[in-house]
Amino acid sequence: AAGILGEKAARRLDLLGVPVRPHPPAEAAPAVAGGAIRAVEAGGAPGLAAAAARGAVAPPVSAREPTSTFEPLPNAVPAVPAPKAPEIGAPDVESCTVEGLQADGLLLRGRQGGSELLPFREIWKIAVAGIAAAPRPFLVLDLLLRPGLGEPLRIERLLSTTLDPRSLLGRPELSGLEAFREMVRAIADGTGAAVSPDALLAPGAPVPMFGSVEAYERDALAPLCQAP
């Protein structure tokens, strides 16, 4: 009703020539968040209440429990153990004879015939043993060669029954055992390889005896092949 009366009054003034200033349209009242109203009702700070009325205050965020820093990763890969060093398999033993002892190696003749120089630098270890075989004991001299990658260990085997260390050394005055010991010493000096047993080169040292070649290979040679 107030609006209709106002329009009539404006038309009358317009007929009389009186200018009428138009009234600005009524603005819609801003929506006030329920949280802001509750803040004002609760006696909150004026600035906070005003900001809430303008919609500038974000709604509260619910508290969240922190996650553990020790949780396992979803795509974690289990640790893989380091591979073991491959063991050296059964050695390849070749019996041969010595034709000459030179400054840089041994001149050997193998079972297939023909002479071949074995350089001292290829000899890795030296093993000596006595075999109490019938009708006569004999000595074994095994030259373990440096193993190649992925290849079986090679051994050049010399027997006292097929060589004459005195003639090889040019020392006929020595006994057979002492000449054999001096030949082993010359090979060890040329190669720098360790001799097993290590006390063999001492004067008068006994040579370890085995009942058979098989017993020597099982009890002495096999552990020596596996040792670093």
Number of helices: 6
Radius of gyration: 53 Å
Distance between the termini: 114 Å
Mean pLDDT: 76
Sheet with most strands = 6 strands, mixed
- Unreliable stretches covering 5 or more consecutive residues: 28-53, 66-80, 82-86
Bin the helical content: 25-40%
Outline type: elongated
Count the strands?
9
Binned strand content: 15-25%
For this structure, the quaternary state is single chain
Q: Output the structural class.
A: alpha/beta
| H and E string | HHHEEEEEEEHHEEH
Structure, explained:
The chain is α/β, with parallel strands linked by helices. The chain is 29% helix and 21% strand. The chain has six helices and nine strands; from the N terminus they run αααβββββββααββα. Strands 1, 5, 6, 7, 8 and 9 form a six-stranded mixed sheet that branches. A three-stranded antiparallel sheet has the order 2-3-4, with helices on one face. A hairpin with a 5-residue loop joins β3 and β4 (115-119). The protein is elongated, with a radius of gyration of 53 Å. The N and C termini lie far apart (114 Å). The model is unreliable at 28-53, 66-80 and 82-86 (pLDDT under 50).
Q: Which key terms come to mind for this protein?
A:
228 residues, alpha/beta, 6 helices
Would you summarize the structure shown here?
The chain is an alpha/beta fold and 228 residues long. It is built from 6 helices and 9 strands, in the order αααβββββββααββα. Strands 1, 5, 6, 7, 8 and 9 form a 6-stranded mixed beta sheet that branches.
Topology:
Layout: H1 2-15, H2 34-41, H3 46-53, E1 92-95, E2 97-101, E3 105-109, E4 115-119, E5 123-131, E6 138-145, E7 154-159, H4 165-169, H5 176-191, E8 194-196, E9 209-210, H6 213-226
Parallel strand pairs: 1-7, 5-8, 5-9
Antiparallel strand pairs: 2-3, 3-4, 5-6, 6-7
Helix pairs in contact: 2-3
